[in-house]
Specification:
The complex is a heterotrimer. Chain A is an alpha/beta fold. Chain A contains 19 helices and 12 strands. In chain A, the strands form 4 sheets. A 5-stranded mixed sheet of chain A has the order 2-1-3-11-6, with helices on both faces. A 3-stranded antiparallel sheet of chain A has the order 8-7-9. A two-stranded antiparallel sheet of chain A has the order 4-5. The chains are: A alpha/beta, B mainly alpha, C mainly alpha.
């Protein structure tokens, strides 16, 4: 009796399992078109709705092609691509790749070398900094997308109130202004920076490092981010935090926290991405709408003397064609369409154009007078983070080193020496 | 027997205190879901928003042509999550009740080792099993399906289900069972008509536990699903985060809406525990 | 209440087959039939991942180079054992686990006991207690990140308005303080589970036991001592094992609240395993870490079983 019932349950379970498997296999076999799977980001750059509109345009022009988009959070993008590609199943044809992932993905053999296929007109009408994003080892592994860099933001009213009529051009000058604001009681912690134990801290470090005349690797490829320039930059940050001129909570902050602090009127200076400009000046989002302005990223006095008036971090992404794609030509055709001058002009609301000539396009300038002008002015001073396949591990080490220096548990020199030692090990592995 | 006036007053204080601890963060979540960001940043905080903004809710709850892609996805995810969590709860109980009963009550060579082995499957961190499981699921063509999530979640809830249930079965006095045995009832019969009713509170607790585990799982659905066909609530909530910007109001709304179905489930299953508690009242 | 038949039958296998010869054979056969579906299901799902992870942990394997893994024996394990960072992460995890599970247990039992006294509002309280659990971790952790914020957080706002602080405090800026705030968040989120199990355990105590105790002439206190407490001990064992397994593998809350910072102050061992596997692509080391985590949890579970089950025997 018991056995019978159990048997029946078992049979039913097996049948159900078979039915499920059959149904999904049926789904796979039902394709007849060229189908491209794309993995992209849910929020940043084009909205999924805009992206879907571009996809429909492309599909209309190419009736034999179907594009299946998947939009995920930025944090999920890396892990999903890695798992999918490592499984050997190559579930994606088109992938949105952050600039810091290109070397490891290229080394892994997951990306198609498209150097020979980059449209000549695109190459001619774009900047080198854009191609830095998608390049590794002298080859191009994708088309640049979502060009972005760190900008300097300041609260104009606070600046005026403190008696200054122009934003600082050096970090030392900013320190003086901050001191004046603090002394006058305008704001307690005038500077806020996203220096939490996350990638944001490295993007900030790049700006301060290069702004002090330093660099990550020397000509011979040896890590040198423990140079006097690097140590000086980190020491300046640590001193700022110790004195309260830099908000002490900065060591726990990401970009959003810094944006919120500025929007709450609790800070006068920050360094952040393009996205902050509109939001910090939007009355629904910010208590200080209309007061937040952008300026060129300052450099340290030492950097200015060495002929470096400004330095920032290039934090862009790129669309790549998966090496496992069964239809690489169709995939390439789509990313070319996506980055084409025509599409970038028509969908310019959330995308900084790759095409240099679009930056001076009167229609686009009329729509985004501040951002586009700022972009063109700042872009020549943008540095990418190191293009090494072990970047994420090195970055993690450096994040912790910066944290140790900033919370004061190690000296800037010791912390950076330690991180450089790890980088040497990683390069040797 | 009746508590004194002082005792009742102190109890009231404790009740209020516990409720405050529970509800203050939740209240902030509700406030966040209906306030413009500008007000959330205010010092001192606007505990009651000056400008009520219900757009997060209308966007998700009232489908229209203008609903954003994110809102539509969230709605689909709510339905998917309810389906998957219910299936996991039901199948999980069906499989684990007999197993837990056997391990708690039937003398079996190696029973204890089996229990430990079952429990040990839950001790391996998900991080290392993701990649091999991904391989299996994708070669079976099961990626991006609710079925694969049900299978995976079952494998997560079963160990604790069996563990918790066998603990509860173990408390049922053996004498009651033996009486039924003498009356000639078989094992299955005893399980169904004697043990199950007595273990009702434990079963209800296990049901709530497994529903919540399936409801809250994040990493596996993140990796194993991609479209609205199988997107789960935690993943949909995570997608309110951009590369830099975080749509905090939408996330708070997601948190509030995601809690509602769970509270309903708890209400239903709690009835069963209450029955136990009420019965227990006679004890004193 | 306790585990695997230890209550009424103090020593379960291997003896029992002889103690009840007439029923033993068909009984144990029926037992295995009842256990089989669960065991087979778990085996089907986990056999491949476990074997594959075990093999990977003995290799120098990169996620990006699946074909090029080389066998290195126990090197991944010995490397970890000799690394200070690893032991620091282990100790942080142990601290997190002991403090959060310990406090959850105490609070959970206290709240459950309080609810079962049935003071005014107990029904509402019994439902309300589940609300923190019902909010998905990802939303709850994001919420707490905002609440703890140094510049606009609600915690600062509230304490400031109450006059408890005279200026806003960066709660998460100190590494050790940050860990404790993570613990507070975990306690808020997970105590309901303890309450659930303890309430169910109390509810599951058959009235007959109290009846019997009363007939024996036991006072209320004695019946609590002889009936309620032993039953609760089993509940505590259940909760301890489940919560320890979960707490030792804590990941989501930390990922959102602190990212392991500041200065690695909240870097727990699961986070290290995640970084090694998915960020640095060191599959071999990630796999070794996973097995070490499992080992720690298993040892804790066996320890609990030993401690709580033996005492159980004495009460009979």
């Amino acid at each position: 009796m018991a056995h019978q019932r159990l048997g029946r349950i078992g049979l039913a379970a097996t049948a159900t399992a078979l039915a499920i498997v059959a149904a999904s296999v049926g789904g796979v076999l039902a394709q007849d078109k060229v189908s491209l799977n794309m993995i992209s980001m849910a929020q940043a750059g084009m909205t999924p709705d805009e992206m879907n509109a571009v996809i429909s345009e492309f599909v209309e022009l190419n009736p034999g092609v179907e594009i299946v988009p998947e939009y995920v959070a930025y944090d999920a993008l890396h892990d999903k691509i890695a798992t999918g590609m490592a499984s050997g199943q190559s579930p994606f044809d088109i992938m949105l790749v952050d600039d810091i992932w290109f070397p490891e993905f290229a080394e892994a053999g997951w990306l198609t070398d498209i150097s020979a296929d980059v449209p000549a007109d695109m190459l001619a009408d774009s900047s080198q900094a854009a191609w830095d994003i998608v390049s590794y080892d002298g080859k191009q592994y994708g088309l640049p997308w979502l060009l972005d860099q760190l900008y300097f933001f300041y609260n104009e009213d606070m600046l005026t109130q403190a008696g200054f009529d122009a934003p600082p051009t050096t970090w030392e000058e900013m320190t003086d202004m901050a001191q004046a604001m603090k002394d006058q009681g305008i704001v307690d912690n005038p500077i806020v920076l996203p220096l939490g134990q996350i990638e944001a801290a490295i993007t900030q470090f790049v700006a301060f490092l290069y702004g002090n005349g330093g660099e990550f690797f020397d000509e011979a490829g040896n890590p040198v981010f423990n140079s006097p320039e690097a140590v000086g930059a980190v020491q300046w940050l640590a001193d700022g935090i110790a004195s309260g001129l830099i908000n002490p909570a900065s060591t726990t902050y990401g970009e959003e926290d810094a944006r919120n602090a500025i929007s709450a009127g609790k800070a006068a200076f920050t360094v952040n991405w393009t996205y902050m400009y509109d939001l910090a000046n939007n009355p629904d989002e910010s208590a200080v709408p209309g007061q937040i302005k952008m300026a060129m990223m300052p450099a340290f006095a030492k950097g200015v003397e060495a002929g470096i008036p400004s330095a920032t971090n290039n934090g862009s992404m790129g669309f790549a064609v998966s090496s496992g794609s069964a239809n690489p030509d169709a995939a390439m055709a789509f990313i070319e369409y996506l980055t084409s001058k025509d599409v970038q002009k028509r969908y310019s609301a959330h995308v900084t154009p790759l095409w240099t000539s679009l930056a001076s396009d009167p229609e686009l300038l009329a729509a985004q007078p501040v951002l586009l002008a700022m972009f063109a002015e700042q872009w020549p001073f943008a540095h990418v983070r190191p293009k090494v396949p072990y970047y994420l591990e090195m970055s993690q080490t450096l994040q912790v080193a910066l944290q140790e220096a900033l919370v004061g548990s190690k000296s800037a020199q010791d912390a950076l020496d330690g991180a450089v030692a790890v980088a040497v090990d990683l390069a040797g592995e | 027997m009746h508590p004194s006036r002082l005792e009742r007053f102190l109890a009231l204080l404790v009740t209020v205190f516990i409720l405050l601890v529970i509800f203050l963060p939740v209240a902030w979540m509700v406030i966040s879901s209906v306030s413009p960001r500008e007000e959330l940043l205010a010092t001192p905080p606007h505990w009651i928003p000056e400008r009520l903004d219900l757009s997060n809710y209308t966007d998700i709850l009232a489908p229209s042509a203008e609903s954003s892609n994110m809102a539509t996805t969230f709605r689909a995810a709510l339905i998917n999550s309810i389906q998957v969590a219910s299936a996991v709860t039901a199948i999980g109980l069906l499989l684990s009740i007999p197993a837990a009963y056997a391990l708690a009550r039937i003398p079996m060579r190696g029973g204890r080792t089996t229990m430990t082995a079952i429990l040990a499957t839950r001790m391996l961190p998900a991080i290392s099993t993701v990649i091999p499981l991904y391989l299996v699921a994708s070669s079976l063509g099961l990626m991006d399906t609710k079925a694969v999530l049900v299978v995976l979640y079952l494998s997560f809830v079963l160990p604790f289900n069996v563990w918790i249930l066998s603990g509860f079965f173990g408390t049922i006095p053996r004498e009651i069972e033996e009486a039924a045995h003498i009356d000639g009832a078989g094992r299955l019969r005893i399980l169904v008509s004697v043990v199950l009713p007595l273990a009702r509170p434990g079963i209800a607790a296990t049901a709530i536990y497994s529903f919540l585990l399936a409801w809250d799982e994040f990493f596996f659905p993140l990796i194993f699903t991609s479209t609205r066909d199988a997107k789960m609530v935690p993943v949909a909530i995570s997608e309110f985060t951009g590369r830099h910007a975080v749509d905090f109001g939408a996330m708070a709304t997601g948190g509030v809406l995601a809690a509602v179905p769970v509270i309903i489930v708890v209400l239903v299953f709690n009835k069963l525990i209450v029955t136990g508690l009420t019965a227990g009242a006679v004890k004193e | 209440m306790t585990h695997a038949g230890t209550t009424t039958k103090p020593t379960p296998p291997p003896k029992p087959t002889r103690s009840r010869p007439r029923l033993a054979l068909p009984d144990s056969l029926a037992g295995w039939l009842l256990v089989a579906p669960t065991v087979l299901f778990l085996a089907a799902v986990f056999a491949y991942p476990v074997v594959s992870t075990a093999l990977t942990s003995l290799q120098d394997a990169k996620l990006t180079k699946p074909g090029e893994a080389t066998f290195v024996g126990l090197e991944n394990y010995t490397d970890l054992a000799s690394s200070d960072a690893f032991w620091q992460a282990i100790w942080r995890t142990v601290y997190f686990t002991v403090v959060s599970v310990g406090l959850e247990l105490i609070l959970g039992i206290a709240i459950a006991a309080f609810i079962s006294r049935r003071f005014a509002g107990w029904r509402f309280l019994r439902l309300a207690i589940f609300v923190p659990w019902a909010v998905p971790t990802i939303a709850a952790a994001t919420m707490f990140r905002w609440i703890y914020n140094a510049d606009y957080g609600a915690l600062n706002g509230l304490l400031f308005q109450l006059g408890a602080i005279d200026q806003y405090v960066p709660w998460l800026a100190d590494p050790f303080a940050a860990m404790n705030f993570v613990i507070v968040t975990d306690i808020w989120k997970s105590t309901p589970f303890v309450v659930l199990i303890v309430l169910a355990a109390v509810a599951g105590i058959p009235g007959e036991l109290y009846e019997a105790a009363r007939i024996d002439g036991a006072s209320r206190w004695q019946s609590f001592w002889r009936v309620t407490l032993p039953m609760l001990k089993g509940g505590i064992l259940l909760v301890l094992v489940v919560r320890t397994v979960e707490a030792f593998r804590v990941f989501d809350i930390i990922y959102i609240l602190t990212g392991g910072g500041p200065a690695n102050g909240t870097l727990v061992i699961s986070y290290v395993a995640y970084q090694e596997t998915f960020r640095f692509f060191n599959l071999g080391r990630g796999a070794a870490l996973s097995f070490i985590i499992s080992l720690f949890v298993l040892m804790a579970a066996l320890l609990y079983l030993r401690l709580l089950s033996t005492r159980q025997g004495e009460t009979r």
